[in-house]
Fold this protein.
Amino acid sequence: MAALVRDHIAERGNVSDDMPIFISTSNNSSEDGRIPAKSLSRLIKGYLVKAGINSTRITAHSLRHTSAMLKLRSCNGDLKATQEFLRHSSPTVTIRYLQELDAARDTSSTDVMSMIRNAGSHP
């Protein structure tokens, strides 16, 4: 998939970091050719359904969220790298993903509760 995106960018030519990767030829697009979010969500949902994935829980947004979490994990929580990956103009939004990752890593309270529950079940 990454190779296909790289090929697409190469075919388009000079693409700066602030430009959309995929552009629309529709009259509904913005001035810079960005595909409207709703249209993109419908496109992605259509491809998911074609691939046999027809769940209301798997959406364009959930795929983006998963990508953000995977990026954070792969770069050991590097906020700047993740911000650039997601193309956020400000780290404020990206911080939410970092906080979620930190919460997922901190399982100590869950572990303690599990030990307490299990302690009563053993003779």
Observations:
- Residues 56-123 form one domain.
- Residues 24 and 35 are 5 Å apart (CA to CA).
- Residues 60-74 form the longest helix (15 residues).
- The chain has a mean pLDDT of 80.
